[in-house]
Amino acid sequence: MSSMISVSALRKTYKSGLVALDGVDLEIEKQEIFALLGPNGAGKTTLISIICGIVGIGSGTVRVGGHDITQDYRAARAMIGLVPQEISLDIFATVWNTVRFSRGLFGRRPDPAYVERLLHDLSLWDKRDRRVIELSGGMKRRVMIAKALSHEPQILFLDEPTAGVDVNLRRDMWALVRSLRDKGVTIILTTHYIEEAEEMSDRVGVIAGGRVLLVEKTVALMRKLGKRRLTLMLRHPLAYLPSGLDPWELELDQQGQVLTYAFDANAEDNGIPALLRRMAELGIDFHDLDTSRSSLEDIFVGLVEHAA
Question: Whole-model pTM?
Answer without folding.
Answer: 0.74
